[in-house]
Structures are given as C-alpha cells and as structure tokens.
Amino acid sequence: MKCITCKHDGRGYCGRGYSKSNAGKLCRGHERMKLYICGRISGETEYRLKFLLAEERLFKSGYYPVNPAACVPGTADWPLAMRQAIRLMLRCDGVALLPDWEESRGAKIEEALARELGMDVRPIGEWE
To answer: Residue 91 to residues 75, 102, 104: CA-CA distances in angstroms?
Structure first.
C-alpha cells in the first residue's frame, strides 16, 4: 500500500522526508505538519481500510498523515511492528488518536510515549 500523499511505499521512503526515487528532493510531506495515526491493529480484520480512511481525512484537513498500517509489513511480529511504528511516530509533529486506540496495547504505548516526549496528542476529530 502506498501513501496517498506522496505515493511512496515503505521501501521507497527514507523516513526523513526524502524519496529515494526523486533524487533526494523533499517529498511533499514537508509542506504540512506530520501526524502519526494511532489506533488498534491487532485483532482487526479491516484495520488497513480504517487507517486509510483516517489518512484521507487528515490529508483533506491539511496534514501529512503517517500511516503505520501502510508502512509496517503485515508479516512483522508484534515487537518488530512496534519498533518500526515507534520510529515512524518519532519523526512526526503530533499524534492523531483513532476512537479505538484505548483497546490496543500498542496504541496505549505509543500514546503514552508521545505524551511523555511532549508531542501534541489529540483525538483525530480535534485535528480537523
């Protein structure tokens, strides 16, 4: 799955806003505030669609959404997925919480870490 904003997939994006495919030019994400999407993934069958819809909402509201469901391989075990997701989150300016975030052990860890680090953490509706 590719990002709706800059069309990079997880392998083509270096994580610092540069696309490996466009010769080191800044991706369009640097024109907007980066928001990490935080919500329940484990145990959900339609989590990719849920995260994609959140990504579209945030993009339409003027943000650059960072979607861990699109960037972290579905084959990764939980510890590896969390390490990769947290790396993505730490490159963001804020965190958008999906309504089900409190039902997820991983999302609770992400939310607590983001708050401890002074990141702006709000429910997704408050970003719109």
So the answer is: 23, 22, 21
**Separation CA 7–CA 37 (nearest Å):** 17
What distance in Å separates the CA atoms of residue 24 and residue 80, rounded to the nearest whole number? 28
Structure confidence by residue, pLDDT tens digits, 42-81:
888 888 899 999 999 998 888 989 999 888 777 888 999 8
Residue with the bigger pLDDT between 15 and 110: it is 110
Going by C-alpha positions, the residue among 96, 95, 87, 88 that lies closest to residue 118 is 95
> Is 10 in contact with 70 (CB distance < 8 Å)?
yes
d(CA 114, CA 108): 10
* CATH architecture, domain 32-127: 3-Layer(aba) Sandwich (3.40)
Residue 20 has pLDDT above 50, yes or no: no
